[in-house]
Write a structure and sequence with these properties.
The complex is a heterotrimer. By secondary structure, chain A is of the alpha+beta class. Chain A contains 25 helices and 21 strands. The relative contact order of chain C is 0.14. Chain C has a 5-stranded parallel β-sheet with strand order 2-1-3-4-5, sandwiched between helices. Chain C is about 45% helix and about 10% strand. The chains are: A alpha+beta, B alpha/beta, C alpha/beta. Chains in contact: A-B, A-C.
């Protein structure tokens, strides 16, 4: 033991400069893991906090029927199996209210009755900053939205009639947690005490109300399980359940996508950090092998030697990891507060599990890569010392067929070594799965990692083979660069592996990040509509449009009024498919359903023509023309085999109309800015047909102006309903903004730390070059020649690694966008190509720069040091 | 007393085997100085490695102090080397990150000796480097490094000292000093000394000179007892 | 538009189905407009006298196959009784009295003898002004009268949760119209169906197949004498 510790202490003292570099490399790897994990955990809790506030609870069980005693009993039995921290009932319904005094004008509102303790999550904001308390509701009190006050012409303190009973307005809701059951509503919120609501008599036979049970469940898995079970067991009884995670809406979806991305990055950074630690350990151990042989010669047993160096590696890794945790703490602190402030309550700080994971990865990775080569030392006969054999350079030469090399490897396989390798690898998979939160994901990424590593290993072999003919070139730097590439025990494999995997992950994360943010951007358009009109009649369209334009803020995009008609496909006559009758059409599944159709003379932003020609700019057709023109969506083309040139027959509210398919359009459905229609007609055909318009507009920013616009609209066009989506869109935007911000921060840190790790890995290889460069210098090679030689060598490695990494990143992005994130894959050739080139440049610059010391140094020093 | 009985060494090579040492018998009496000479590739270093237990013979027995070391495991061999055999290399093979004194102390520490510090200093003093104990190998000349290596080899006061071309990397003056040191150790401590050398002068000083050629003993020359 | 609505997390409701029917996420709504034409790509050659049901999703048969919608059942009843009429499903999901009024001309084209006005449910669900609804329905009746089309007015009720005042004024509007124009009157289209869990779909609004059959019976009780009368004249 004394010997082990003494040896460790001496090594640290003697070569602390070199070890410091090792430290820093380990520290960067571990620091990246810890920092990212911490941020991810903070952001995740922030995001789920928002999502919980959206439903004011962890789980909502609801039904549009009153709870029958049997349902209630069975639900109670179900809940008894779940660790429910708190529960309460809530009822939501539409009803008409009017002011107790004054005009008899009645308004539809979304009435919600809640119990004391509501909400479990989120916070009420009341006008004037008054705190929310259930006491405000007790005894026929009510809280209402400002728009209702305006509509009814009342003030706080006045009374409104709900179900024929007076309720006193005790406050005005500015912001409310737990939006309406449907996600959005036609009336404004009126909040009352649940008991009071029950006392109004509005709940009776035939009443339409949403009955809810809000649950607080600390354990997330229990909550999700409850949702699954309620959905399975109570579907027949019209009971549904959802958790804050449910993906029925954009929040849940975004949350899941953001979380999946964050997990993936967290995972990747473990691998990247592992690569960094690996390259450090590898060089460290290689340098120590001669010492190990000497010690064996001096009588040290295998156990003593292994203990001495494993202890050193462990100490080194632990110290480096500790430094990494420190770096992470500093790094997180230095994220500008302006960025994090946007995330509201989210507090950034190191989390214990992140620290533990970082330390575990740092230790395990270094041990994995230290133990296996050190174990090999057991079999190296110290006899080799007699030959002056350079053990550091020992390795399989890059000759012989791959098969024979593999066979040689297998023959030389050491059971203990293999077992150790497998054990430590399993430990790493455990850490990775812990990180990813799923065994399957852990195994999947591990397998993917091994796959890429195998490809890179094969690529290294191919590269060496491919460049071998160049070794007969006369140009010295090129010839020696080639020789270096295939020299046994050189850095070819380590750089290809480290840089290849590194660029694979960094580019993968980068393009995933871009895809994800592009996806969110579609939903985040700040100029997007936040007010929606339904049921605008054709004779009202002009007047409505004028009114909207008049009231919009300057610079707002013009309102859109989209005509919608109902139609059904009743026949198709085409090359691929002929459907004679409506019953034939119905045989084709959804082709037989009622479609909403429209007409216009231009493509929308989210559409592009894939076949045929759209009638942009052409005049409308005569309404009485026998054959009209229609453009179909790609999916209709693909699913039903309908082609350009085919004739389709439509039933438009009892009238038959024929149209020739003149183009196929692809609609980007995820793009929220413009709608999507399966069938778009050329103007003229549907002029006489009954139609209504749906309006989309960016309403005025000022609340009073919005209220006045809604009021004026409804007064002038009583059948039109204006839905104000601003609040809910605002909340969705907040969550999305946070998600985008988190993704950007995390992606940025991943890029930065990934690059640093790669720099470390490449720079680390210089220790192998010192001796060789010194000899070449001694033999008269100029700095310039040596530099060129190194540049060629590193360029070749960088380019190959970068190219394979970029190709892998494309594959990774494709798979992840489609199967994990469920978003559109956007090919990113520019990013990938420039990524590969930047990788090449980085490797070349770092490789050469790291060797400048070698180039500058007097050769004798280097030789003696060796 | 070191006895080699029918010791041979072959290694697989391509389709067949390559014989490095043909079966040979050899006895080295205690306290003797034995020189092994021969041209490159004659099997000198292999023979030395076999005696040190650094390599295993293909056949035969090697008895060191009455123990057949061919029956010992790696760790037993290591222990044997640590206490019974000192080794000096042509390329010194000092641990680069340790000072001279620490290099000398290592074998004692491995063996678990308690007074490593004092004995280390004494040994350095014995090889004439008491002032250089805190220097690193890279700060020492070749001769100095080899003297540190000799001191290290003597750390556990082994009865047998093996030296593989100890002067091969040194100039003649320095080489002479190293030889003198080794002979002095032989005389003062009674350490058996087996050295591989090209150096005729050095060989001439040995009690017994074994000439190897193509893996077989070609000559055994005993020096007449010194007068 | 699909995404906009999805993003708002809109649950299926009468009103929004207007929009959703255009989107891909609403697959499976099997509505009925009318029986298919007999030959491919020829225009309708049915020259039987027509009965038009002007209505909303209840008429369109939202969530049902076409033959289960109450106009489809009425056609079967007429056929079974040997009454030679074509029943046209003029139901548009989400339509209000205002929309019905605007598409009246389109609906009345051809040899229309009977108009069943089954509108108002969406006006009620959206809490629209009862006075406005009454004016729209009055205009529909007047226009049909002017064209000598027999009008059957199917009444609606506002759900009780809208409060007694709104519910009674809503009900009163239909009774007033029936009295004023002396049209044939079905007091409540969803009589015996509304509020019965076993007769409605999961949304609690739209009748299921059994419910639809009861609605058809309710309408048939009033429609049949009218058809008999026309057939015999």
């Amino acid at each position: 033991m004394t010997f082990v510790l003494l040896m460790a202490a001496r090594e640290f003292r003697a070569s602390w400069r070199r070890l410091l570099f090792f430290f820093v490399c380990v520290a960067i790897g571990v620091g990246a893991i810890v920092a990212l994990r911490s941020i991810i955990q903070s952001v995740r809790s922030g995001l789920t906090g928002e999502a919980r506030a959206m439903i004011a609870s962890d789980v909502v069980i609801q039904s549009n029927r009153a709870w029958t005693p049997e349902v209630r009993r069975d639900l109670d039995a179900q809940l008894a199996k779940t660790p429910v921290a708190a529960r309460q009932d809530s009822i939501e319904m539409a009803t008409m209210v009017r002011a107790e005094r004054g005009a008899a004008v009645a308004r539809m509102v979304e009435l919600r009755g809640v119990e004391s303790g509501f909400p479990f999550y989120g916070r009420f904001t009341l006008q004037g900053g008054a705190p929310y308390s259930h006491d405000l509701l007790v005894g026929r009190g009510t809280l209402v939205r400002p728009e209702l006050l305006a509509q009814l012409g009342i003030r706080v303190g006045d009374r409104i009639m709900i179900g024929g009973q007076p309720f006193t307005v005790r406050g005005v809701i500015e912001q409310e947690p737990g939006g309406s059951a449907g996600g959005f509503s036609l009336g404004s919120r009126v909040l009352v005490d649940l008991a009071d609501l029950r006392g109004t008599g509005l709940l009776t036979f035939g009443s339409r109300a949403t009955h809810q049970i809000l649950l607080k469940i600390a354990e997330e898995n229990a909550a999700l399980r409850l949702v699954r079970e309620v959905r399975a067991n109570f579907r027949e009884r019209f009971v549904t359940a959802r958790s804050f995670r449910s993906t029925e809406n954009q929040i849940g979806e975004s949350l899941e996508r953001a979380e999946n991305f964050l997990s993936l990055v967290g995972f990747i950074i473990v691998v990247l950090g592992g690569i960094g630690v690996w390259s450090v350990t590898r060089v460290f151990v290689q340098q120590k092998i001669p010492s190990v042989a000497i010690l064996k010669c001096l009588g040290a047993s295998t156990r003593q030697v292994l203990a001495a160096y494993v202890a050193q590696v462990a100490l080194l890794a632990l110290a480096g990891s500790a430094l990494g945790v420190g770096l992470a703490a500093v790094g997180i602190r230095s994220i500008p507060a302006s960025l994090t402030a946007a995330l509201g309550r989210v507090a950034y700080g190191l989390t214990l599990s992140a620290v533990l994971q970082g330390l575990a990865v740092g230790l395990l990775v270094s041990l994995l890569f230290a133990l296996v080569p050190l174990l090999e030392v057991r079999r190296v006969k110290p006899l080799l010392l007699l030959r002056g054999f350079n053990l550091a350079a020992a390795g399989q030469p890059w000759t012989g067929s791959l098969v024979s090399r593999l066979r040689a490897r297998l023959a030389a396989l050491d059971l203990l070594q293999a077992a150790t390798g497998v054990l430590v690898a399993i430990a790493l998979v455990v850490v990775a799965s812990w990180q990813a939160g799923s065994w399957r994901a852990g195994a999947a990424v591990t397998i993917g990692f091994a796959g890429i590593a195998a490809v890179l290993y094969g690529a290294a072999f191919v590269l060496v083979r491919a460049v071998s003919p160049l070794a007969s070139m006369r140009w010295f730097p090129l010839r020696h660069a080639v020789v270096s590439l295939r020299r046994p025990g050189n850095q070819t494999r380590v750089i290809l592996l480290a840089v290849g995997l590194g660029s694979f992950f960094v580019l993968g994360v980068r393009s995933l990040q871009n895809d994800l943010i592009a996806e969110f951007a579609l939903a985040l358009d700040p100029k997007g509509a936040d007010m929606f009109l339904i049921d605008v009649q054709r004779d009202q369209a002009g007047g409505v449009r004028a009114l909207l334009v008049d009231r919009q803020d300057p610079g707002a995009p013009p309102p859109r009024l989209v005509p919608i008609l109902r139609a059904r496909v009743t026949g198709v006559k085409g090359r691929e498919v002929t459907l004679d009758s409506f019953s034939d059409v119905r045989g084709r599944g959804s082709l037989g359903r009622e479609y909403g159709i429209t007409y216009r003379n231009a493509l929308e932003e989210n559409e592009r023509v894939t076949e045929g020609r759209f009638w942009t700019g052409e005049p409308p057709l005569d309404p009485d023309a026998p054959l009209h023109e229609v453009s179909i969506e790609q999916s209709i083309h693909e699913r039903f085999g309908i082609e350009v040139g085919d004739t389709m027959r439509f039933d438009v509210l009892g009238r038959i109309m024929q149209a020739r398919v003149t183009s196929v359009r692809r609609v980007e459905w995820a793009d929220a800015r413009s709608g999507g229609f399966m069938f778009v007609f050329r103007p003229g055909a549907l002029d006489k047909a009954p139609q209504t318009f749906v309006g989309f507009l960016k309403g005025p920013a000022d609340l009073t102006a919005r209220l006045r616009l809604q009021y004026d609209l409804v007064t002038k066009y009583p059948n039109v309903t204006a839905v104000d989506g601003r609040e809910i869109i605002g909340r969705i935007q907040k969550v999305l903004d946070n998600a985008v911000l988190a993704i950007s921060i995390v992606g940025g840190i991943a890029l930065l730390s990934g690059t640093l790790i790669l720099i470390g890995a490449v720079a680390m290889t210089r220790y192998q070059r010192v001796y060789e460069a010194a000899i070449l210098r001694t033999l008269g090679a100029s700095t310039r020649t040596l530099g060129t030689m190194l540049a060629i060598e590193y360029c070749a490695l960088g380019l190959l690694a970068g190219a394979i990494g970029a190709a892998g990143a494309a594959a990774l992005t494709w798979g992840v966008t489609r199967h994990v994130l469920d978003i559109a894959w956007r090919p990113a050739p520019v990013l990938l190509v420039s990524g590969a080139l930047l990788t090449t440049a980085l490797v070349a610059v770092v490789g050469v720069a790291a060797s400048t010391e070698v180039l500058r140094k007097k050769p004798l020093g280097a030789l003696r040091a060796e | 007393m070191i006895e080699l009985r029918g010791v041979s060494k072959t290694v697989p090579s391509g389709d067949g085997t390559l014989t490095i040492l043909h079966p040979l018998d050899l006895s080295i009496p205690d306290r003797h100085v034995v020189a092994i000479t021969g041209p490159s590739g004659s099997g000198k270093s292999t023979l030395l490695g076999l005696i040190a237990g650094l390599d295993a013979p293909t056949s035969g027995q090697i008895l060191v102090g009455g123990t057949d070391i061919t029956t010992l495991g790696e760790d037993a061999l290591a222990r044997l080397r640590g206490t019974h055999i000192g080794f000096v290399f042509q390329f010194f093979h000092l641990l680069p990150s340790l000072t001279a004194l620490e290099n000398v102390r290592v074998p004692m520490e491995i063996a678990g000796a308690r007074d490593a510090e004092r004995r280390g200093r004494a040994l350095l003093d014995e090889v004439g480097l008491s002032e250089r104990g805190h220097h690193y190998p890279s700060q020492l000349s070749g001769g100095e490094q080899q003297r540190v290596a000799i001191a290290r080899a003597l750390a556990n006061d082994p009865p047998l000292l093996l030296a593989d071309e100890p002067t091969g990397n040194l100039d003649s003056t320095t080489g002479r000093q190293v030889i003198d040191l080794l002979l002095q150790v032989n005389r003062s401590r009674g350490t058996t000394l087996v050295l591989v050398t090209h150096d005729a002068d050095l060989a001439a000083l040995a009690d017994l000179t074994i000439g190897l050629r193509d893996g077989a003993i070609a000559s055994r020359t005993a020096r007449p007892p010194a007068s | 538009m699909q995404a906009v609505w999805r993003r708002l997390g809109v649950a299926a409701s009468l009103v929004v189905c207007v929009l959703l029917a255009s989107c891909s996420s609403c697959k499976g709504h099997v509505d009925v407009l009318k029986a298919p034409p007999p030959t491919p790509l020829e225009t309708n050659t049915d020259d039987r006298p027509k009965v038009v049901i002007l209505g909303d999703s209840i008429t369109a048969g939202l969530g049902l196959v076409e033959t289960q919608s109450f106009p489809g059942l009425l056609q079967q009843k007429a056929d079974a009784e040997g009454l030679d009429f074509e029943v046209i499903n003029g139901g548009v999901s989400g339509d209000t009295s205002a929309g019905g009024l605007r598409r009246l001309d389109w609906a009345l084209e051809g040899d229309v003898r009977v108009l069943v006005v089954a509108l108002g449910a969406n006006d009620g669900l959206r809490g629209l002004s009862v006075g406005e609804m009454k004016r729209n329905l009055a205009q529909i009746i007047e226009t049909a009268d002017a064209r000598k089309v027999v009008v059957i007015l199917a009444g609606m009720e506002a759900p009780p949760n809208y409060g007694p005042e709104y519910a009674s004024s809503f009900r009163q509007a239909y009774q007033d119209l029936a009295g004023q124009y002396r049209v044939r009157f079905i007091p409540f289209l969803l009589d015996k169906v509304a509020g019965q869990p076993s007769l409605n779909q999961a949304d609690g609004i739209h009748p299921n197949a059994q419910g639809s059959a009861i609605v058809a019976d309710t309408v048939w009780a009033v429609l049949r004498p009218v058809l008999d009368q026309i057939a015999n004249s």
